[in-house]
Hints:
Strand content: 15-25%
Amino acid sequence: MPSSSRLAFTSSSKPGSSTTPNFRSVGSGTHCPSNHRCSVTLRSRYSPNNSLSVPRMFASMYRAPGIGLAATQVDVHKRVLVLDISEDKSQLMAFINPEIVWASEELSTYNEGCLSVPDYYDDVKRPARVRVRHLDRAGSVQEFDAEGLLATVVQHELEHLEGGLFIDHLSRLKRERVVKRLTKVARYDEIAAHNRAERESEEAGA
């Protein structure tokens, strides 16, 4: 029987908050279109001097708060993802050039949400177990088997690197409703930000 549980992928911070990371989101015109691969392979060894900072990705993920984050969500087109599914946030994991090399036929169901699809959750079926191959931050090839929540989070985040979102697994009607709602929210936020900037400019000139 498929298992069902709720994932805390989404942000609890309000839009416009100074502590809210600037995530690429549906409706804002900044998220990669579905089925469009929007990340590239890191062919060189990872270095803290690279433009992509894994520690900064962890910081953004924790501030959200979330349990997983793909580089494409913060407008970095590299095949990197980070996650931490522990309750005390003590098990940081970073994957460079991750790929799933095996997936079970058995499926599990989790109620998923996403930092790129704010305030929306729905059930998604994915393979219950997967084998993941990736580079660690030293550039060495690693491989491990994941199941349960870890397997789901890895698949969810890896999907971002392929230009996908968890809502791609929903019916067309549900997906269109979500995109329409978030597009309206993004437009409202844009207008509100513009009005706020005008007020601040007027106050500064008074």
